[in-house]
Amino acid sequence: MSEFMLRGYKIDELRNMSIKEFAEKVADSRVRRTLLRRLKLGFPVEWENFYRKCYLQKEGKYKKTVRTHAREIIILPFMLGTRIGVHNGKEFVELEIKENMIGRRVGEFVFTTKKVQHSNPGIGASKSSRFMKAKK
Fold it and tell me: Which GO terms of the molecular function aspect are on file (predicted)?
């Protein structure tokens, strides 16, 4: 099986990059713009806490799943292998960070809506159902 590469960089090379290097060399334009602006103006407190807890979890100092409501957080290379919980509007959905998730937003992997599954129509659902026998 071949080793995973992202835009010509191996995982070890990605882990050793700074956030600025990652943004300039690997990230797509939207992520690059966000990261470079955040480096200049400062990250939101929720992002900083999330990244800090992910780093501590990698070192083994934080045992719990890192949970967040902020679905726009960008997945960085140092987060590989961490377990996170992302809120979908109702509950926290757990995921493990894999290689192909690097440079994407956390919310992209947790859906906020479910597929609608309709069952049979009930009594009174249409004009013709008035003449049907009720199920017993």
Answer: rRNA binding; structural constituent of ribosome
